[in-house]
From TrEMBL:
<comment type="similarity">
    <text>Belongs to the class-I aminoacyl-tRNA synthetase family.</text>
</comment>
<dbReference type="GO" id="GO:0005524">
    <property type="term" value="F:ATP binding"/>
</dbReference>
<keyword id="KW-0547">Nucleotide-binding</keyword>
<feature type="binding site">
    <location>
        <position position="187"/>
    </location>
    <ligand>
        <name>ATP</name>
    </ligand>
</feature>
<feature type="binding site">
    <location>
        <begin position="147"/>
        <end position="149"/>
    </location>
    <ligand>
        <name>ATP</name>
    </ligand>
</feature>
<dbReference type="InterPro" id="IPR024109">
    <property type="entry name" value="Trp-tRNA-ligase_bac-type"/>
</dbReference>
<comment type="subunit">
    <text>Homodimer.</text>
</comment>
<protein>
    <recommendedName>
        <fullName>Tryptophan--tRNA ligase</fullName>
        <ecNumber>6.1.1.2</ecNumber>
    </recommendedName>
</protein>
<dbReference type="InterPro" id="IPR002306">
    <property type="entry name" value="Trp-tRNA-ligase"/>
</dbReference>
<keyword id="KW-0436">Ligase</keyword>
<dbReference type="GO" id="GO:0006436">
    <property type="term" value="P:tryptophanyl-tRNA aminoacylation"/>
</dbReference>
<feature type="binding site">
    <location>
        <begin position="18"/>
        <end position="19"/>
    </location>
    <ligand>
        <name>ATP</name>
    </ligand>
</feature>
<dbReference type="GO" id="GO:0005829">
    <property type="term" value="C:cytosol"/>
</dbReference>
<feature type="binding site">
    <location>
        <begin position="9"/>
        <end position="11"/>
    </location>
    <ligand>
        <name>ATP</name>
    </ligand>
</feature>
<dbReference type="InterPro" id="IPR014729">
    <property type="entry name" value="Rossmann-like_a/b/a_fold"/>
</dbReference>
<dbReference type="InterPro" id="IPR002305">
    <property type="entry name" value="aa-tRNA-synth_Ic"/>
</dbReference>
<keyword id="KW-0963">Cytoplasm</keyword>
């Protein structure tokens, strides 16, 4: 079976709808056809200097949400990145294959460091995509399900894999393919639908969070920014707000956007929002409840994570040994 790998950072109390539709639901689907490995990438989260007292809790909460959404530990490996030390070891090797200019062109680094200014940024934020490449290449990953915002990072992972094969011989690294589902790859902020829904940049009203109170979810949907027209139709440029709501509606119901638009002919934005709020709350309630059960049984959760880390580490060590050997490191006796 082809291998799928992906991860998310434990940088908030709850994942948002972009994380859920753009990534997590794709992870769940790919388990049927792929050998799946999913990680809570806590080392990546250190780049934003999280409060140490909340990071551990958010790491468990993020894993709980993976499980609640349908990542099945019987079929997939689920682990915390810092439990598998090979990620950092491979990252060092890859950093020696990465050009300064190449890393400096990453738009996420440019955007995030521009916000905090050069003195507020850190080297970890700069090398973030190299650690991400290590995450991916360590498992000889074929497919990486992510949202649109990660496309450029994935391109770097592919370039690094190709470079390893050119310099160290074919078969050194597998070349990963992005799995980006166009319709859900960029869920927009409800308040500012020209921007992506984001853990760090969205206002609380711009977000829909999996673990949010259903009333707050409905309220945020009902106060979503639309436009001054009154017609419900799909037009990403002229009507980004309405188009975003239609895409979310379509993702949850499995119905085509055109069919939804036809249903709402002659109706008002308020109708669409109110129905969408019901659809989203109904779909997220079982996920919310299951996540809370996992969060309330940390021993059970930690045992799933320990099992995942042991198995992931065994796979990772094989890749790391191969690459250490090919770059010419002397094996320890
Ligand atoms: N708005 C989005 N629409 C679709 N997919 C999205 N993803 C994130 N936002 C959207 C995808 O969710 C995964 C989360 O990866 P991450 O934890 O590394 O977070 P991120 O990409 O940095 O995005 P966030 O969650 O909104 O955080 P910030 O605020 O830091 O930008 C990835 O697969 C991502 O593509």
């Amino acid at each position: 079976k082809p291998r799928v790998f992906s991860g998310m950072q434990p940088t908030s109390e709850s994942l948002h709808l972009g994380n859920y539709l753009g990534a997590l639901l794709q992870w769940v689907r790919l388990q049927d056809t792929h050998d799946a490995i999913y990680s809570v990438v806590d080392l990546h989260a250190l780049t934003v200097a999280p409060d140490p007292s909340v990071l551990r809790d958010r790491t468990r909460r993020t894993a709980a949400q993976y499980l609640a959404a349908g990542v099945d530990p019987e079929r997939s490996l689920l682990f915390v990145q810092s439990h598998v030390p090979q990620h950092v070891e491979l990252m060092w090797i890859l950093s020696t294959f990465t050009g300064m200019g190449e890393a400096g062109r990453m738009t996420q680094f440019k955007d995030k460091s521009a916000k905090v200014g050069e003195s507020g940024t850190n080297v970890g934020l700069f090398t973030y995509p190299v650690l991400m490449a290590a995450d991916i290449l360590l498992y000889d990953t074929n497919v990486v399900p992510v949202g649109e915002d990660q496309r450029q990072h994935l391109e770097l992972s592919r370039d690094l894999a190709q470079r390893l094969n050119t310099r160290l011989g074919e078969g050194t690294a597998a070349i990963p393919e992005p799995h980006i589902v166009k319709e859900v790859a960029k869920i927009q902020d409800l308040q500012d639908p020209t921007k992506k829904m984001s853990k760090s940049a969205s206002s609380p009203k711009g977000l829909i969070e999996i673990l949010q109170d259903p009333k707050a979810i409905a309220k945020n949907i009902k106060s979503a920014t639309t436009d001054t027209e009154t017609v419900i139709r799909y037009d990403e440029d002229a009507k980004p707000g309405v188009s975003n709501l239609l895409r979310i509606y379509s993702a949850f119901t499995g119905r085509a956007v055109d069919a939804i638009v036809a249903d709402y002919e002659g109706k008002m934005y308020g109708h669409l929002k109110s129905d969408l709020a019901d659809v989203v709350v109904e779909a997220l309630t079982p996920v919310h409840d299951s996540a809370m059960e996992w969060i309330e049984s940390p021993e059970r959760l930690d045992s799933v994570l320990a099992d995942g880390a042991a198995k992931a580490s065994a796979i990772a060590q094989v890749t790391l040994d191969r690459i250490y050997d090919r770059v010419g490191l002397l094996p320890a006796l």
